[in-house]
Amino acid sequence: MKTEKLSNKRNHAPKKTIVLVGIMGAGKSTVGKILADRLGMQFIDADQEIEHAAGCTITDFFEKYGEVEFRKGEERVISRILAGKPCVLATGGGGFYVRSN
Fold first, then answer.
1. Domains in the chain, number
2. Residue 76's domain is classified under what CATH number?
3. In degrees rounded to 5, what are phi and psi of residue 82?
4. Which of 9, 24, 54, 76 could anchor a disulfide with 93, C-beta 3.0 to 4.6 Å?
5. Is 62 within the bounds of a domain?
6. Is 56 within the bounds of a domain?
7. Phi, psi of 83 (to 5 degrees)
8. Distance CA 13, CA 9 (A)
9. What range defines the domain where residue 81 resides?
């Protein structure tokens, strides 16, 4: 079987966002940047986007508002990213969980 190299990144970019999920320190951002570059896509780190939206660090947000409010904000930010242009998205360690109503 012959393997082709990705010579034209734009022609090979997926039409949907690729989401990387894992525990803190697993390498999601490192792998995500490499993958995005190889596919010619934008890389987005959800934690950085959350900090930008909140205007403070995640640690400060947790201390001031607690985990419940953080998860609500995290859900809003990730939903906004997923509704946008396809990208490679690295979520925080708790960014993916099953909610039951």
1. 1
2. 3.40.50.300
3. -65, -25
4. 24
5. yes
6. yes
7. -80, -10
8. 6
9. 15-90
pLDDT attached to residue 94: 74
pLDDT tens digit sequence for 49-82: 999 999 999 999 999 999 999 999 999 999 999 9
7 vs 19, higher pLDDT: 19
Residue 81 to residue 46: CA distance in whole angstroms: 8
Residue 49 in any domain: the answer is yes
Pair 13, 39: CB distance under 8 Å: yes
Q: Is 101 contained in some domain?
A: no
Write down the residue that tokens 């979520």 correspond to.
91
Band (pLDDT 50/70/90 cuts) for residue 11 is low
Task: Look up the pTM and report it.
Answer: 0.80
Distance CA 27, CA 90 (A): 9
Alpha-carbon gap, residue 25 to 2, rounded angstroms = 35
Contact (Cβ atoms closer than 8 angstroms) between residue 77 and residue 101: no
